[in-house]
Amino acid sequence: MGSMANPPNRALLEQQDPRSPFCLLQPRKGVGWIWSFFGHIRISKLRRVLIKPSHPSWAQRRLDPPSRLGYRHSMLSKTFFAICILACIVICPLGGSAGGVFWTDRGASQIKRMNFDGSGLQTVSLSGAVSTPGSNIRGITVHAGRNYIYWADNGADRLLRARFDGSNSEILYTVPGGNSFPADVWLDKSRNDLYWCDQTRRSIQNYAIDLKTMVPSVTNAAPSGPYFMDVDRQTGWVYWGDFSGGSIYRSKLDGSDRQILLTGNNNTRGVKVDSEGQMLYWINRDDKKVHRCPLSAFGSVPIPLSHPAVQTLYTHLDTPHGLALDIPARKLYWADTGTNPGNGTGGQSICRGDFDGSTPVEVLASGSEPWDVDLDTSCGSYEEWVKRCFRRDASPADTLRDADPDGDRLSNFEEYAFDLPPLHASRAGLPRAWLLRASDSDNEFLMVESRRRAGATDVTFITESSADLLHWHRHGPGDIRLLEIFVPSLEGGLHEGNVKMMRSTREVPVQFIRTRAGVP
């Protein structure tokens, strides 16, 4: 695919549809930055921004009037620089490490793992300090970056972990004195802290794994005790529901600023927050529903379940319970304990749906009493990514590598390479560009930050630069004209990093960079 193939629709640009990857992003505080996949983006030294379409039919969008920008229609104007982030379509072999779905089967006292579409179901056999996960296993969370599973065992009042393959199983912490109920768990991957709900003692606590110390986080969390929880690390909020009540709460991690957000559920389960989409998801167990609500709807006064901002995504379920979010794929996974057999869809199963509830429930795999679920969203191949992002009954035409089922002008393979949702037009997660000013001078350097798939053998990324958009130079390892720094991501099989031009914009006033996803 060439750089100017499939120019975006004029109306789409003129309306600046928020779903389109061709619209301007909001500037990061203190830094002027935008990106585009196919247009030439010109950034002035004063950090005022204009998209200059490279196709005559493309619409021009500007943030400042020409009189303020002083824009000249010369492609080589020395007051502007251009950045073009591109991707190409390829067909490649399989490979890489696989992710999948992990879940606790309380009725069978087992931890299970399967592919995203429910295939390849297997029981994790433990070896190490423990040979079974426990007599009453509950919440589960995974750390894909370190290949660890963490879970709670209410039968022995303890927290445990093991490798993905079941090896190195160990007891992390045993609650002293009994009279406890370890329910849900959440791992702060950056600090290696394990937060967990103690329903009986009505608290949320933090076990610092490296320090082997327990620190209370939230006390008197709910009248009947917290049962499921989630943490938004970006804002420092912890969210939870109560065991037999109908409320959802949040507070800071130290227990301050406590709020009741919503009332009226018929036993709250599986509370999860999407900080990127600013949305709260939860399960209303005995009403057999999955709900969501924008975080902006919550204020100082609790809102009722009947509030117009609350959306019902799925209903007529059996006994929905634990919940997990795949934010890039925009998928929900939940466990259904099946304690109301025959009364709804998905009993005694792990199920999947969409963030907006637009497609029917997919029943992925069955168990004895599935209790909680979590995800390793890594994908070692394009085929595995298809299982993660598309329904099992998806049209084969929609899953082809060069297909564009969401109409956002990005092929499935491009969305795979940059971990974007193929069924939801979105610009979130695409490469971002800006000018970096040296701390010891006024020199500025062109930089591009991207999130790319790592560990897969069927995609590689090629960085090229140009001075005229006609002649491109491919940069390889050790090229002194370009600096590439990539830091492995802890989750999702991705890595993030920067590509920086080594010559400043003062030395080379016109610079172009593009990153292509190609065949290894």
Fold and architecture overview:
With 520 residues, the chain is mainly β. The protein has 4 helices and 37 strands. The chain has a 5-stranded antiparallel beta sheet with strand order 1-31-32-36-35, with no helix packed on it. Strand 33 (460-466) and strand 34 form a beta hairpin.
Query: How many helical stretches?
Result: 4
Rounded to an integer, what's the Rg over CA atoms? 25 Å
Largest sheet: number of strands, sense, barrel closure:
5 strands, antiparallel
Mean pLDDT: 81
Tell me the layout of helices and strands:
Layout (H helix, E strand, L loop, with lengths): L9 H6 L17 E2 L5 E5 L4 E4 L8 E2 L3 H4 L10 E4 L16 E6 L4 E5 L7 E2 L13 E7 L4 E6 L4 E6 L6 E5 L7 E7 L4 E6 L4 E6 L4 E6 L7 E7 L4 E6 L5 E5 L6 E5 L4 E7 L4 E6 L4 E6 L8 E2 L6 E4 L5 E7 L4 E6 L12 E6 L7 E5 L3 E7 L5 H8 L22 H6 L14 E6 L6 E10 L6 E7 L5 E4 L6 E7 L5 E8 L10 E7 L2
Parallel strand pairs: 20-24
Antiparallel strand pairs: 1-31, 2-3, 2-5, 3-4, 6-7, 6-30, 7-8, 9-10, 10-11, 11-12, 13-14, 14-15, 15-16, 17-18, 18-19, 19-20, 21-22, 22-23, 23-25, 26-27, 27-28, 28-29, 31-32, 32-36, 33-34, 33-37, 35-36
In short:
This protein is mainly beta and about 525 residues long.
Key attributes of the depicted protein:
4 helices; single chain; 5-stranded mixed β-sheet; 5-stranded antiparallel β-sheet; about 525 residues; mainly beta
